[in-house]
Amino acid sequence: MHFISARTLLLWLLLLSGTRLLAQRPAVYSLNDIISRAQMQSYSYKLAATQKEISFYRFRTFSSEFKPQVSLYGNAPVYNKEYYAVRQPDGAISYQLIEQSNNNIGLGISQRLPFSGGTISLNTDLSRFDNFQTKTKQYSGTPVYLQLNQPLFAVNELKWNRLIETLKFDESQKQFAFDREQIAQVAVGLFFGILEAQNNIDIATTNLLVAQENYEIEKKRVNLGTTSEDRLLQLELQMLRSKQDLERAKYDHTIAQLNLNMYIGIKEEKILLIEPVQSKKLSIDLAEATSHAKKNRPEFIAFQRRTREAQRDVAVARAATQQVNLTASYGLSHIGTQVGDVYQNPNNQQRLSIGFNIPLVDWGRRKARYHTARALEKLTATSNEFEEANIFQAIEILINNMTLLESNIDLARKTDSVAHRRYILANDLYQIGKLSVTDLSFAQSEKDNSRRNYINALRAFWDCYYQLRKQTLYDFEKHESLLRTSTPDNTN
Predict the structure, then answer these.
(1) Are 109 and 122 within 8 A, CB to CB?
(2) Mind listing the domains of the chain with CATH numbers?
(3) What are phi and psi of 395, to 5 degrees?
(4) Lower CB density within 10 Å: C or N end of the chain?
(5) Which run of H or E residues covers position 437?
(6) 300 with 293: CB under 8 angstroms?
(7) Is 187 within 8 Å of 246 (Cβ atoms)?
(8) Alpha helices, DSSP H only, in 347-436?
């Protein structure tokens, strides 16, 4: 009686796999390959990189406010020709033609004062006036003009903003690393989506080949009268189900690959994913993991930023009861018919003004704003504590899951191996007539489920591992911060 041995079945499966790969010539990728490509060329990466670039230039724009600002200003010649009403000593109006031209140019340098919130500026300017009716011209200018604008009894918002903007910039750098790990986690899900479909194709293909072979064997037995037609129909049913499973697996594989191609931008029509192997067992200390999270996560910078912003709002509300502004200036000016006259023995000019706005009756509005700011400060502190506790709890859960999932992979691998060997043995026994179709179907189901459970265990482990990386921004395999492995800034 004809039957397939275990060795023959293994050779058959290897030959089938090799023929399929040769025919399709797929591009081969590992899990690390998919993650690396996703972190370098996916649309999500491009969005994260663009956001990082925006944050960089925003901070550069803000930082420029602390540097001297030099400006050149002026007006091009303003020409004016018209009749002007001039009242005479007797009260009559006499219209006279005027034809004039005015123009001026100036150069100024200003500097904001971070320690006080004021602004100091130094300017020089020159103006020319031409009267075309009398054919005369005159110059006036300020060779040097120093001015100080200083708010009094007010919040130094420049100082507060400097603290807050620095935190925002640090937060954006860490957010970029966090976004890259989020991309990695998405890539893991897409990778295993294809791998599961790829595995289901292999399972369905194998089951179909074995069912077809056993169906031919059973047909011969029916002709010899050694078996019933019912067993033949059972095998035919298995073939039909295997064909359905194969078509469904191919469809799932196509959709999964389209999703991956769309996310990462892979151009190959067909790809083959290499099943990832479990890395060496990781011993992760909870205290160490939470310490890395405090150093690396953008949320902990955000906690500081929110606290600073709330403190600033309280200070602004407290200082809003009065507004006093000091403006003081000192300069030298002169006039003359020649440009050089302006700069010879100029006269000094001085100006001092103090403006104030002190509300006498506001019906408790400013007081209410102050208490609102204080309440928001307390709310911010509570919210920060709650979010921090959630982060630490998530890390602890992931660490505990890692230990369980590592054990699950070992058990699932052994179960898969045992179920596979048992199925080969069951198929051999069936083909020599010592096992029923029902028992063979049960062994096949155990083999298929064990294989799928092993792939699911791998998926759960790697998903959990990359979640832990994202929660801590730390690579526990290489023992290095993921902030240092982020793509360098190209905004020079």
Answers:
(1) yes
(2) 6-60+162-306+379-481 (1.20.1600.10), 70-154+322-361 (no CATH)
(3) -65, -45
(4) C
(5) helix 437-472
(6) yes
(7) no
(8) 365-431
Determine whether 73 is exposed, middle or buried from the number of CB atoms within 10 Å of its CB (0-12, 13-18, 19+). Answer: exposed
Angstrom CA distances, 27 to 37, 200, 267, stand at: 14, 19, 10
Dihedral, CA of residue 471, residue 476, residue 480 and residue 483, to nearest 10: -20
Report the first-to-last Cα separation within the chain, whole angstroms.
Answer: 78
180-196: burial string, b at 16+ Cβ within 10 Å, e else: bbbbbbbbbebbbbbbb
Q: What angle do CA 385, 386, 392 make, to 5 degrees?
A: 90
- 3-state SS class at 158: helix
Read off the DSSP letter of residue 66: G
Q: Are 104 and 72 in contact (CB under 8 A)?
A: no
The residue type of 294 is K
- Closest by CA position to 96, among listed 105, 87, 104, 86: 86
Q: Determine which helix (DSSP H) or strand (DSSP E) holds 77, and give its type and residue range.
A: strand 69-87
> What is the pTM (predicted TM-score) of this model?
0.78
**Rounded Cα–Cα distance for residues 41 and 31 (Å):** 16
Pairing state between β 27-29 and 271-273: parallel
Cα three-residue angle 32-34-38, rounded to 5 degrees: 115
Model confidence band, residue 1 (pLDDT cutoffs 50, 70, 90)? very low
Which positions ≥6 away from 259 have C-beta within 8 Å? 190, 193
Q: How many Å separate Cα 181 from the centre of its chain?
A: 9
Q: How far apart are CA 471 and CA 463, in angstroms?
A: 12
Contacts of 290 (CB under 8 A, 6+ apart): 392, 395, 472
pLDDT single digits (tens) 190-231: 999 999 999 999 999 998 998 888 888 777 776 666 666 777
Q: What is the pLDDT of residue 6?
A: 44
**What's the CA gap between 113 and 156, in Å, rounded?**
10
Tens-place pLDDT, residues 461-486: 999 999 999 999 999 988 899 987 66
State the sign of the Cα–Cα–Cα–Cα dihedral 453, 459, 465, 467: negative
Q: Which residue type does 1 have?
A: M
Strands 323-336 and 347-357, how do they pair? antiparallel
Residue type, 33: D
284 in Cβ contact with 396 (< 8 Å): no
